[in-house]
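Exercise 7.
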Amino acid sequence: MSRASKLTLFGTSCMAAAIVIGVHYSQRVEKAAMHAGVVRDIEQQRVKKERQADFEMQKALEEEYKKIQQVHDTVPPVSGGAGAGGNVA
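Solution. The predicted structure, written as tokens, is:
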């Protein structure tokens, strides 16, 4: 084999090996990123469940307090005094 053909064979072999190594590295990076996404989704679901449980607890407490206390949904109108933002001459 001539020297040029040996160098060509060596160069193409090195290039093929580099491509295979690069593809395997890329796959590992993608797999790690996907796993991090799954971990993040699980954490978000846990936080969402916690918030929903807090909301349900607050709703139950509100209903309990409404049974015990007199609660009016409307606010009585404020009289037109000086501190109420009325026209002061």
